[in-house]
């Protein structure tokens, strides 16, 4: 029995068909990340870059940085700590109830409140974020 070093292994399926070990060769594989996202930057670096340029909501950040919206709040929390070492601050606009105008001034979380404590309305403006020096 002889072995050849350097050639890819070939796996046989249940019917005897040849399946390559290349992970991108099988059906249903997803293409690499979109071309408009820089693969050399981390998610938080991309978010920081976006927030230095403009004031954005969590939804806008998720679209531009290619992350899920529910993950943005956690990234912003970590980014806030990192920015303090650089002499920068993460500024957040105060979310408010669209129906009665109640402002969530003492809120420390970066996610949108679910409903107004005063009128119980769920029409809450999302907070927007910006990095300043």
Q: What oligomeric state best describes the polypeptide chains here?
A: single chain
Number of strands: 5
- N- to C-terminal distance: 69 Å
DSSP helix count? Answer: 3
Main sheet characteristics: 3 strands, antiparallel
**Strands of the largest sheet, in order across it?**
3-5-4
Q: Kindly estimate the percentage of residues that lie in beta strands according to DSSP.
A: 5-15%
Q: Which ranges are low-confidence, i.e. pLDDT below 50, for 5 or more consecutive residues?
A: 22-38
Broad shape: globular
The CATH superfamily label of the domain at 43-100 and 122-132 reads Winged helix-like DNA-binding domain superfamily/Winged helix DNA-binding domain
- Mean pLDDT, all residues: 78
Which fold name is given in CATH as the topology of the domain at 43-100 and 122-132? Arc Repressor Mutant, subunit A
**Rg, please?**
23 Å
CATH architecture of the domain at 43-100 and 122-132: Orthogonal Bundle
What class would the helix/strand composition place it in? alpha+beta
- Text of the CATH class of the domain at 43-100 and 122-132: Mainly Alpha
Helical fraction equals: 25-40%
Sketch the topology as an H/E string, one letter per element.
EEHEHHEE
Structure characterization notes:
With 133 residues, this protein is α+β, with helices and mostly antiparallel strands. It has a domain at 43-100 and 122-132: Winged helix-like DNA-binding domain superfamily/Winged helix DNA-binding domain (Arc Repressor Mutant, subunit A, Orthogonal Bundle), CATH 1.10.10. It has three helices and five strands. It has helices at residues 43-53, 58-65, 69-85; strands spanning 10-12, 18-20, 56-57, 89-92, 128-132. The protein has a three-stranded antiparallel β-sheet. β1 and β2 (18-20) form a beta hairpin. The longest helix is centred in the middle third of the chain and has 17 residues, at 69-85. The radius of gyration is 23 Å and the shape is globular. Residues 22-38 have low confidence and may be disordered.
